[in-house]
Amino acid sequence: QVHLVESGGGVVQPGGSLRLSCAASGFIVRSYVMHWVRQAPGKGLEWVASIEKDGINKYYADSVKGRFFVSRDNSKNTLDVQMDRLRGEDTAVYYCAKAILGGHDVDYWGQGTLVAVSS
Amino acid sequence: DIQLTQSPSFLSASVGDRVTITCRASQGINIFLAWYQQKPGKAPKLLIYAASNLHSGVPSRFSGSGSGTEFTLTISSLQPEDFATYYCQQLSSYPLTFGGGTKVEIK
Hints:
Chain A is mainly beta. Helix content of chain A is about 0%, strand content about 50%. In chain A, strands 2, 4, 5, 6, 9, 10 and 11 form a 7-stranded mixed β-sheet that branches. A 4-stranded antiparallel β-sheet of chain A has the order 1-3-8-7, with no helix packed on it. Chain B contains no helices and 11 strands. Chain B has strands spanning about 5, 10-15, 20-25, 35-40, 45-50, 55, 60-65, 70-75, 85-90, 95-100, 100-105. In chain B, the strands form 2 sheets. In chain B, strands 2, 4, 5, 6, 9, 10 and 11 form a 7-stranded mixed β-sheet that branches.
């Protein structure tokens, strides 16, 4: 059974850093495209970043490019995102998401972890 | 970047109604479109992938159609558990983008 559990969220000051981790079970992370998607309070869904199966090709939304860095640990079967130079507009629930086999559509989501950027 | 425009943004309907939500892409995306349902405080759930394929476990009252730039999600007979917000997402090219959402509420 597929399970995704995010951790690492919390309150951080503007300009600070946070690292989110997503523990995957029931499947092998390196065999699928994996995504991070966020949702600001009361707002819609926003795609943040993706890592392709090859683990080399990584893509980012313009809003986080150069500040967020996605990575994968095949030995631990985890997905991470390092978030630097955080801004108020990064405040959101962050979801780890698994794509369908051979595609990019998300078939499984984590429960989400809240990141609040505030002084 | 490919923009997705969902309409309507808000919909009021009754149990048993047929409901249609539209998603328009700013450029052709073939059939690389997914539909998700999200309830308050919960993660989204996949309903439809590749424009018209029903995800495993999703009731058959949900259906998707379209290709290119125009797509629809149809709920043939709205059930109480279907009151939620629905999002489309294009998977044709990065950056991946979501539509603004359609909130379906009880009339």
